[in-house]
Please model this.
Amino acid sequence: MRDTALEAANTSPAPEARDALAALVENSMALLLDMGNTQRIAGIYMFAGYRSTQAPFVRTAGSPPVDYVGDSGQSQVEIGAGIGVTVNITGDRLYNMGGAADPGLDDLFTTLETLRTEILAGDPNAVSARITDIDAQLQRILGMRGEAGARLRQVEFMADRMADTKLMLSKLLSQTEDVDMAQAIIDLQSRENLYEATAAVAAGIQALRLLDYLR
Model:
């Protein structure tokens, strides 16, 4: 969209070209709307907050061009003792709906709808001013990408720790429960020898008792 705005601002396109550029903006808005309504497994909407069973973004016929009907609920998962990580980014922050992420900036859909209108009007100065807003939106979304990356690194770190702990516990369990076969054979042979000696002694005692009886 930034490239489209630059093209519209730096040239004086004919009406047909302006229509084509405006159509690009419209198509991008439709794509962003579709992405905002992305579903995970079991029909859960990724960016809807706690209202995850319904599509969070709805196209309107007025202003703003898109409504957000999700909420700001952030889901957390415990990845360690007393350690939780937020696993979602809500759509109001993602697209700055109602200024949720930056109160001084329009939502992304309004920014693009305004750009589309200015392109159709053939107003290069207004389009140039809109590039500043697009840059601000871009930096804001890149910041959230960094935030998501930091969460992912935290989860990966804890996963590595859990794998190390599992390996350590497996070694301890092995040392406790595994049988030393050589030692087991020696112990068995010793017990057999003891049994045979005991049996021999018992037989001798029985023979002595029988001898005493016969006397």
